[in-house]
Amino acid sequence: MLSEAAPGKVRIVHGDILTYKMEKAFPKHLKKDWEDEPPDIHIIGNLPFSVSTPLIIKWLESVSKRDGPFTYGRTQMTLTFQKEVGERLTANPGSNQRSRLSIMAQHLCTVENCFIIPGQAFVPKPEVDVSVVHFTPLVQPKIQQPFELVEKVVRSVFQFRRKYCFRGIETLFPENGRLKRTEQLMMTANVDPTLRPFQLSMSQFRNLCNAYRKMCDEDPSLFVFNYREALRQKKMTETLLGSTGQPEQTEEENQL
Question: Nearest Cα to 208, choosing from 224, 197, 219?
Answer without folding.
Answer: 197
